[in-house]
Specification:
The protein is 36% helix and 16% strand. With 390 residues, the protein is α/β, with parallel strands linked by helices. A hairpin with a 2-residue loop joins strand 11 and strand 12. Bound molecules: ligand T4K. Ligand T4K binds next to helix 3 and helix 4.
Length: 390
C-alpha cells in the first residue's frame, strides 16, 4: 500500500491555476510588476469592500506591516503586549527599539487580559499591542477604555482575524476597525493568502498616505523623501492572486467552518480536552482549531503531538514556547513566569489540529479518532491471562 501523505496543520488554499493565467498575462503585457500598479489598487478597493473597512495599505508581509505601523504612529518607549503570540508581534517592537512589556492572557479567549493592563503602564508606555488570537476578537471595548484613560495608542496584531466581525448595536461590523491600526497577514498559512503578504487597516486617508510613504522608502514624489521609510510594497503578482483568492474566500471559510463543526462533534466530551469557543456575537474565520489538553487527558499534550506525528498528522503547538521565553526576551522583568501563569498553562496545553479547506472529512474523522484514543489510558493487557487459562 502506498504510504499516506502527511497531513500538516494547514495547507495553503489556491485557485485553479488556469484561473490565474489571465491575470499573469495582464502583468506580462503591462510590464508593471510593483510600486502600486493596477492590481495593487484593485485589491485595496476590493478588500475595503469585502472586509468592511475604510482604508487599507498592502504590504509584503505582516511583520514589515507591524514594524511600519509602529513607525507611522511614532511609537517609542514601552508597549504592552502579549507573550501568547507568534514571535513577530514582539519582534516588530524590538525592530523599532521599543521595549515589550508582557501581560497575561484571559483563560477563556487566550487574548490579552484587559484587567492586567493598567498595572503594567509606566510613564514610558505609549501603546498597547494585543492580538486577536486564532481570530477570536479581543475585548476591544475594555482595551479602548484603558487606552483613552491613559492616552495610549492601540495597534492590533490582527494576523489571524481576516474577515472576522462582531455584533455592534445590532450590526455585524469588522473587528479590524478597532484601535488606531490593525495589521493583517496574508501569509501562505493564513485564511486568505497572497503567497506572502499583509496589510494595515487605517481609519483615515491622512494616515493611509503616511503609511504609503513609509512603505515606499519615504518617497512622496521623484525628488522628495519625508521619512526613513522601508520597502514594504506588495507586488502585482501577489495583488493579482489576492483578487482571485477573494472570489473563493467565502467558500473557503465555509468549508473551514464545516471542518470545525465536525471536530466539535467528534471531540465533544473527550476527557481533558477543551475546545476554544467563538464568543457570542462574533463570527469565526476558523483559521486555527486549537484544543487545550489538561492533566486528565491520558497521553498528555506532547504525547498526543507525538502520537499524531507517528500517524503522519503534523499538528502544531501555536504558541509554544511563549515569546517571553525566547532568549532576547527572557531577561525582561515582565517575562517572569510568575507574572504569566495563564499564558504559560495555555502554551503547555495547546495543540492546533489540522484545518484547511482541502482537508477531507475522512481525515478529520481519522485525526479525531487518534485524539480520542490518546485521551484514554492504555488498556491493561487482558488477553494473556485468558490465553493462559485456555
Ligand atoms: N502575527 C501573528 C499573530 C502571526 O501568527 C504571524 C504569522 C505574524 C504576525 C507574521 O505574519 P507574516 O509576516 O508571516 O505575514 C507560520 C507562518 O510562517 C507565520 O506566518 C504564522 N504567523 C505562524 C503562526 O505560522 P511556521 O514556522 O509554523 O510555518 P511553517 O513553515 O512551519 O508552516 C506550517 C505548516 O504549513 C507546514 O508544516 C506546512 C504548511 N505549509 C506552509 C507553507 C509556508 C504549506 O503547506 N505550504 C507553505 O507554503 O510559521
Amino acid at each position: 500500500m502506498a504510504a499516506r501523505k502527511p497531513i500538516y496543520v494547514t495547507q495553503p488554499e489556491l485557485p485553479p491555476l488556469e484561473e490565474f493565467m489571465p491575470y499573469l498575462q495582464k502583468i506580462w503585457d503591462a510590464r508593471v510588476l510593483t510600486n502600486g500598479g493596477p492590481f495593487h489598487q484593485m485589491l485595496e478597493a476590493a478588500l475595503c469592500d469585502y472586509l468592511g473597512v475604510k482604508h487599507i495599505c498592502l504590504f509584503t508581509n505582516a511583520t514589515i506591516a507591524l514594524v511600519t505601523a509602529l513607525q507611522s504612529l511614532r511609537i517609542t518607549g514601552e508597549v504592552i503586549t502579549t507573550p501568547y503570540s507568534f514571535v513577530a508581534t514582539a519582534h516588530s517592537l524590538m525592530w523599532n527599539g521599543i521595549k515589550p512589556v508582557f501581560v497575561d492572557v484571559d483563560p477563556v479567549t487566550l487574548n490579552m487580559d484587559p484587567a492586567k493592563i493598567e498595572a503594567a503602564i509606566t510613564p514610558q508606555t505609549t501603546a498597547i499591542m494585543p492580538i486577536h488570537c486564532y481570530g477570536t476578537p479581543c475585548d476591544v471595548d475594555a482595551i479602548q477604555r484603558i487606552a483613552d484613560d491613559y492616552n495610549l495608542k492601540v495597534i492590533y496584531d490582527a494576523a489571524h482575524a481576516f474577515g472576522v466581525r462582531r455584533d455592534e448595536d445590532g450590526e455585524m461590523r469588522s473587528v479590524l476597525n478597532h484601535g488606531d491600526l490593525s495589521v493583517l497577514s496574508f501569509h501562505a498559512t493564513k485564511v486568505f493568502n497572497t503567497f506572502e503578504g499583509g496589510a494595515i487597516i487605517c481609519p483615515d486617508a491622512k494616515t493611509k498616505q503616511r503609511i504609503d510613504h513609509l512603505k515606499n522608502f519615504g518617497y512622496v514624489n521623484e525628488t522628495t523623501v519625508v521619512a526613513t521609510g522601508i520597502n514594504g510594497k506588495m507586488s502585482e503578482f501577489n495583488a493579482a492572486l489576492g483578487l482571485l483568492q477573494l472570489k473563493h474566500i467565502d467558500d473557503a471559510i465555509a468549508r473551514r467552518g464545516a471542518i470545525a463543526g465536525q471536530y466539535r462533534a467528534l471531540l465533544d466530551g473527550v476527557p481533558g480536552l477543551r475546545m476554544l469557543e467563538t464568543p457570542a456575537g462574533a463570527t469565526a474565520n476558523h483559521s486555527y482549531f486549537a484544543v487545550l489538553i489538561s492533566a486528565e487527558f491520558a497521553s498528555g499534550r506532547d504525547g498526543l503531538y507525538k502520537r499524531l506525528r507517528d500517524e503522519g498528522v503534523v499538528a502544531r503547538r501555536y504558541f509554544y514556547p511563549l515569546i517571553s521565553d525566547f532568549p532576547m526576551y527572557r531577561g525582561f522583568p515582565s517575562s517572569d513566569p510568575a507574572r504569566l501563569p495563564v499564558a504559560r498553562t495555555a502554551s503547555e496545553q495547546v495543540l492546533c489540529l489540522p484545518i484547511y479547506p482541502a482537508l477531507a472529512s475522512e481525515d478529520v474523522e481519522r485525526i479525531a479518532a487518534i485524539v480520542r484514543d490518546a485521551a484514554i489510558p492504555a488498556r491493561p493487557d487482558v488477553e494473556m491471562p485468558l490465553l493462559l487459562a485456555a
